[in-house]
Design a protein that fits this description.
The complex is a heterodimer of chains A (360) and B (261). Chain A has 360 residues and is mainly α. Chain A has 15 helices and one strand. In chain A, helix 12 packs antiparallel against helix 13. Chain B is built from eleven helices and seven strands. In chain B, the strands form two sheets. A four-stranded mixed β-sheet of chain B has the order 2-4-7-6. In chain B, helix 2 crosses helix 6 and helix 10 runs antiparallel to helix 11. The longest helix of chain B is centred in the N-terminal third of the chain and has 18 residues. Classes of the chains: A mainly alpha (360), B alpha/beta (261). The interface between A and B is large, with 77 and 74 residues.
């Protein structure tokens, strides 16, 4: 009893570090404003962006490890060290810029309290749902299969996740080999010393709901500023729409509430809105920091799903066209268009492997 | 244009949400007072809608290059449907001053997006069942897999098994080491043969055991209710136990190499 309690506590501490403290401070490296009092929005912004940065970092480290045939332990170690170093940098950056831990306390009006209560209940309902109930999704045969075989064999795409036999060539699972979301679960499972299925099916879904709401809170904040009532109405609407997503197996609700651990779900429900938010930040400042953030979000999207590799260029093209129409500036349009660089690199690798230019 | 119709149907599945989305978008363009950030989000979505999704040239190219609707339906993800509808609902709600009217509008919108009989509601028996364990897979999968693992370790056997298709995908989710002839989908002549025998009411033990020996599978798992044409013991496999509604047999002789199907 005592041992299992200690084990649970230890897992919670590790979880708090890898999905809490590390993203929060990794985000602060690029998000912390100089000499500004940090409000709740700043924390949420740092956390969400930091979360994207850790995924982008994962894609970079993974690709190197994959092509050099490194083992999972090696990937986990390098990525873990990079994340911790980034977080330490974030901590130093926070104190240096005098943006310490201060959350602005403001009395909520009655109406605002009611709206916040409704929003909180909706989120709680979804969290209880995804934690206590099971949804069987047959796509998991591949996603969870890759995660489990990577976790147990300790190698990156050397065994067929369906049959367990050695894979002779790269092309068999190329979409996943370049967008390693299932390997990410094996990494997290390795750190937590838990089976990947527990991480994917039980631990991640409530975290996904929280991050999803944080990102939409940021989008709401960007649109309405300090009009909190409007932001809460927006968040309530977003959550009701998620809960009413049964019209299609491809709706946001279906992905968020039924299979949030799958790479395409991470991209669609989390990374895509996060990219939109970062693009809105980029439109405000046109600074190098926001440009780097946007490119990091593109890399993180490519890490989550191969769909992002093919579809995000369309989104980026639309953003560039919108910039051209609204600013009439070729330079800004080009800089927005350059968000596409990571997609270009991954597509080139994809093409080289598919056509046999680059062989195993 | 067939691809356009197919992707629309695949995404919205004849629900009213597609219309709600277009009305929401129109609402922003008609609205006199516009928020700058709203304009930006709506502007990007409108560009995607007109340049890609409603662009016949794009679909003609996609159709000519043989793109499947199942891949291109994901283009709808770029429309941020929930965000656009969410912003429209928020603006509409704040435009109305009377509390009663707001409640009425809220109920109307809930019926609109949730379906008249709640058919769009995610929480239903088709989507969810109560979790049997933290892994969130059927418990008998875990029991069978653990049993094979334990026995293989005790008897120095390879973890390779022939398992009915209804179990095989789950087993690979839980056990990354086990070797199977197939998982979710069945490929290859031998794998198809094994799958067909295991799914038939009467199991042809002789043919199944021969196929298992050719593939050097150490374990065979058969549903308890299946009728066996003859005992497995006559064909080189020994009965171990019945676990989670399935009988587990092990090869009498140890073989170390496996054949790849």
């Amino acid at each position: 009893m005592g041992t299992s309690l200690f084990k649970c506590f230890f897992i919670l501490v590790k979880l708090l570090i890898i999905w809490g403290i590390v993203p929060l401070f990794a985000g602060r490296v690029l998000v912390a404003e100089k000499n500004s009092r940090l409000q709740i929005e700043g924390w949420v912004k740092a956390y969400c962006i930091g979360w994207g940065i850790t995924l982008a970092l994962y894609e970079g480290v993974y690709l190197v490890c994959f092509f050099l045939h490194f083992k999972l332990n090696c990937l986990t170690g390098i990525w873990g060290i990079c994340c911790v170093l980034l977080a330490i940098w974030g901590v130093r950056h926070s104190f240096k810029n005098d943006t310490g831990i201060r959350i602005e306390k403001k009395e909520k009006e009655k109406k605002e309290r009611i709206l916040f209560g409704a929003f909180f209940l909706l989120v709680l309902l979804q969290i209880i749902l995804v934690t206590s109930a099971t949804h069987i999704d047959m796509d998991d045969a591949l996603y969870a299969g890759i995660a489990s075989s990577t976790y147990e064999m300790g190698t990156l795409f050397e065994y067929n996740p369906y049959t367990g036999y050695p894979l002779g060539e790269w092309v068999s699972f190329l979409d996943y080999e370049l967008s390693p979301a299932p390997i990410y679960w094996a990494t997290i499972a390795g750190i937590l010393k838990l089976h990947p299925l527990i991480v994917m099916h039980t631990i991640w879904p409530p975290v996904a709901i929280l991050i999803f709401n944080m990102i939409h809170f940021l989008i709401g904040k960007k649109i309405w500023g300090n009009e909190n009532n409007k932001i809460y109405v927006f968040l309530i609407a977003i959550n009701v729409l998620s809960l009413c997503g049964n019209y299609s197996s491809r709706s946001v609700g279906a992905f968020l509430l039924l299979r949030s651990w799958q790479g395409k779900a991470i991209w669609y429900t989390i990374m895509l809105p996060l990219f939109l938010y970062v693009y809105l930040l980029w439109r405000d400042t046109r600074g190098i920091r926001e440009w780097i953030l946007a490119v990091a979000m593109v890399i993180a999207s490519c890490m989550a799903s191969s769909s992002a590799v093919f579809l995000l260029p369309i989104m980026i093209a639309a953003c560039a066209l919108f910039d051209l129409l609204s600013t009439k500036s070729i330079s800004i349009t080009l800089r927005t268009g350059l968000f596409i660089i990571p997609n270009g690199v991954i597509l080139m690798i994809y093409y080289m492997i598919r056509t046999g230019i680059w062989c195993y | 244009m067939v691809l356009l119709r197919k992707t629309y149907q695949l995404f919205f599945n004849n629900s009213i949400l597609g219309i709600v989305f277009v009305v929401s978008l129109l609402f922003f363009w008609i609205k006199s007072e516009k928020n700058r950030k709203e304009k930006e989000v709506v502007g990007i979505v409108t560009i995607i809608l007109f340049c890609i999704i409603w662009n016949p040239i794009f679909y003609t190219i996609m159709e000519k290059t043989g793109q499947s609707e199942y891949r291109w339906v994901r283009i709808y993800w770029l429309l941020f449907i929930n965000v656009i509808i969410g912003i429209a609902i928020t603006e509409l709600m704040t435009m109305i001053k009377s509390g009663k009217q707001k409640i009425m509008l809220g109920i109307f919108l809930l019926i609109l997006v949730g379906g008249a009989f709640g058919e769009n509601w995610m929480i239903n028996k088709n989507n969810y069942s109560s979790a049997e364990n933290l892994y969130k897979i059927p418990q008998n999968i875990i029991d069978i897999s653990d049993y094979i693992t334990e026995d293989a370790e005790k008897n120095m056997r390879n973890k390779s098994a022939i398992i009915p298709q209804e179990l095989s995908a789950y087993i690979k989710m839980y056990d990354g080491e086990i070797c199977l002839p197939y998982a979710r989908m069945v490929f290859g002549e031998e794998a198809v043969l094994i799958s067909e025998i295991l799914s038939s009411d009467v199991i042809d033990v002789g043919v199944l055991a021969d196929a298992a020996k050719r593939g050097q599978y150490q374990y065979i798992v058969v549903h308890e209710e299946k009728i066996l044409s003859e005992p497995f013991e006559n064909n080189g496999y020994v009965y171990l136990d019945s676990v989670g509604g399935y009988c587990i047999y092990r090869c009498k002789e140890e073989k170390s190499e496996q054949v790849k199907y």
